[in-house]
Amino acid sequence: MTGPARLAHIVRHPIKAVGVEELEATTLTPGQPLPGDRAWAVAHAAAQLGEGWVPKMNFLRGVSGPELMAIRAETGPDGRLTLTHPRADSLDFDPEAEGDRLVAWIAPLWPEGRPAPQRLVRAPQTGFCDIPDPWLSILSLVSLRVLSQRMGRDLSIHRFRGNLWLDGLAPWEEFDLVGHRLRIGGTLLAVRERITRCKATTANPDTGRYDADTLGALEEGWGHTDFGIYAEVLEGGPIRTGDAVEILP
Fold this sequence. Notes:
This protein has helices at residues 99-106, 141-151, 214-222; strands at residues 5-12, 21-23, 25-28, 40-44, 72-75, 81-85, 88-93, 117-122, 136-140, 164-167, 181-184, 187-196, 203-204, 209-210, 226-235, 237-240, 244-248.
C-alpha cells in the first residue's frame, strides 16, 4: 500500500442502470447492499420476472443503451427522484406511484430495435445488483488513474457504477484484498471476489456515447477485464467520505 487508504466516494444508483447519485455519508447494514442502491429497475418488454432477484438481462442496461450512462439522480427527503440527462428535460417523480412517467421519459433515450421499456419494478431488499448476492462494490481511484494513463484520457468514476471508491491503495492492490476484511468507519466488510466488466464501461457518463475501449485497454495492459471487487457487510454502521480504511486478515 502506498499510504493510508481512505474512502473517497460513496455512490448509489437508485434505479439499476438509470442514474448515479453521490453521497457524503450513509449507514450500512449486515448482509445488505448499499442503502437505496439498485432499489428499482426498468423491466423491458421481453422480461421474464419472478419472485426476488432476477438476472440483469431482464432490465434496461447501459451495455445496450449507452444514453442511460449519462443520467444523474437525486433522491429527495420524501423519496421522490429527480433525473437529469444532457438531452432531455429533467424528471421529478415518485417511483412508488409514477413509474409510467419514468418509462415515458426514458423511452426516447433507449435504442430502437431493442425490447422497449415497459415498467418500473421494485427490487427485493437485497437489491438488483448484477449478482444475486447482496454485496456492494469497492473500486480504487489509483487503479482508475493507471487505466486512464494507459488510455491517455481521464476516465470518470461513473463508467464503472461502483459504490465505494478508495484512494491510497497501490495500483490493483484491491485484487489482493479478496479473502481479507476491511474496517471502514463504523463497519466491517469481507472482500469476496473480483468484478469482471462489460461494454457499459466504454460509454462516457457525461455524453452517453461509446468513446473509450476500456475492456481492450484492461486486456492489453493486464491480461483481464476485471475492475473492482465485491464485498459483504459483516458489521453495520456509519460510513462517511474521508473515513480511514484498515485492511485486516
